[in-house]
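Need residues for this backbone.
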């Protein structure tokens, strides 16, 4: 009981740090469980950002960074967007928020350019780093082996948009059609959730000797009955046999020996040359897409002022969540974190508007550094939240 009270108090009074806030453009506002930044400027245009908390500890982490994408101030310059949807706890998503970009900058410096290979290496280095952390904490905090995170990244550099994804967060482009004036939704990210038949087939082909690699549990498809996503950072209990044993909770331990990794940390990466009719990209954790289709989200952004776009998307998603439970939105807002998770997930949305006039020069012209963390809360990189007993892992 005392430990639960201490966890609660730590969550309420986590220190705010200005370590990443390079200027006033990084400030956001708080409205109950909703944090938002209506408008900011990045190297290639504007952005809007919003996060609403549902879990006791916020498991979604996110960032917008716009400056040199290498370890050298000489560039290349661009914009980095990351959304990290944690499950089982906040440790993995916080670790990614503190380390992925630094790895990307290091590999960019080595290769002197941004590429899909650089992004892939940054993901792998982040995965290896978190595995090392789990190894070091295994005896003291073994349940950290069952914590993981989806990982969606967008990088804009030299007129090119790179999208990398693990899990079921999603990036959707709004592209204008000159002939009709409408803006079409184009999904840019590939998802790794076993509710998708092709993802189930992929897992089954990788594990032909395991008839129960994917099972239907409580009317939801899950990998080994445990987790919905097939790719992630963390979740090392499904990647290394030495972490799928006592003292890990029995409900996470497999009955049969783990012969090879079940989950992967290899991201799906796509590369897009930005065009003048590309208007904006919506990056969001699956908490948004549970309630809105791609086209509905694009229409909301297109048909309203840019300022507050992300907050508007979150609000509409919450209204839909309330409607599904036959309750009023105003009553949903009164429900506290923890209990709120029974009504909706943590939701993070970043809308990145693209100014085609800035695209061509942004990679070579130094612009003011922008660094914003979703929620406005930063913990020192060597600090992890107290582990809370996960519910059903991977209910992303």
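Answer:
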């Amino acid at each position: 009981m005392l430990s639960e009270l201490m966890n609660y108090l730590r969550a309420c009074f986590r220190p705010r740090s200005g370590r990443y806030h390079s200027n006033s453009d990084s400030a956001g506002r708080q409205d109950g469980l909703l944090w938002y930044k209506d408008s900011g400027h990045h190297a290639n245009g504007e952005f809007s950002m919003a996060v609403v908390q549902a879990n006791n500890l916020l498991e979604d982490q996110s960032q917008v960074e716009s400056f040199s994408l290498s370890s050298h101030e000489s560039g290349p310059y661009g914009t980095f967007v990351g959304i990290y949807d944690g499950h089982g706890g906040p440790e993995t998503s916080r670790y990614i928020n503190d380390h992925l970009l630094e790895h990307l900058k290091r590999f960019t410096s080595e290769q002197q350019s941004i590429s899909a290979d650089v992004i892939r290496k940054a993901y792998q280095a982040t995965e290896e780093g978190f595995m090392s952390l789990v190894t070091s904490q295994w005896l003291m905090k073994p349940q950290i082996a069952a914590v993981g995170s989806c990982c969606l990244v967008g990088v804009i550099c030299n007129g090119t948009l790179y999208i990398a994804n693990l899990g079921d967060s999603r990036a959707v482009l709004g592209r204008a059609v000159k002939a009709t004036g409408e803006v079409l939704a184009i999904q840019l990210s590939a998802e790794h959730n076993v509710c998708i038949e092709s993802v189930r087939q992929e897992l089954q082909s990788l594990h032909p000797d395991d008839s129960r690699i994917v099972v239907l549990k409580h009317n939801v498809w899950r990998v080994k009955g445990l987790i919905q996503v097939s790719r992630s950072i963390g979740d090392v209990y499904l990647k290394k046999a030495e972490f799928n044993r006592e003292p890990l909770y029995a409900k996470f331990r497999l009955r049969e020996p783990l012969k090879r990794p079940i989950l992967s940390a290899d991201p799906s990466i796509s590369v897009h040359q930005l065009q003048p009719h590309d208007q904006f990209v919506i990056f969001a954790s699956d908490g948004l897409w549970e309630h809105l289709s791609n086209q509905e989200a694009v229409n909301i952004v297109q048909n309203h002022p840019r300022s507050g776009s992300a907050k508007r998307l979150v609000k509409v998603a919450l209204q839909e969540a309330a409607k599904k439970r036959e309750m009023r939105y105003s009553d949903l807002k009164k429900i506290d974190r923890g209990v709120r998770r029974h009504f909706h997930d943590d939701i993070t949305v970043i809308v990145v508007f693209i100014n085609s006039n800035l695209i061509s020069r942004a990679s070579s012209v130094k612009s003011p550094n922008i660094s914003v963390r979703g929620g406005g809360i930063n913990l020192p990189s060597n600090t992890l939240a107290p582990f809370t007993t996960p519910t059903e892992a991977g209910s992303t």
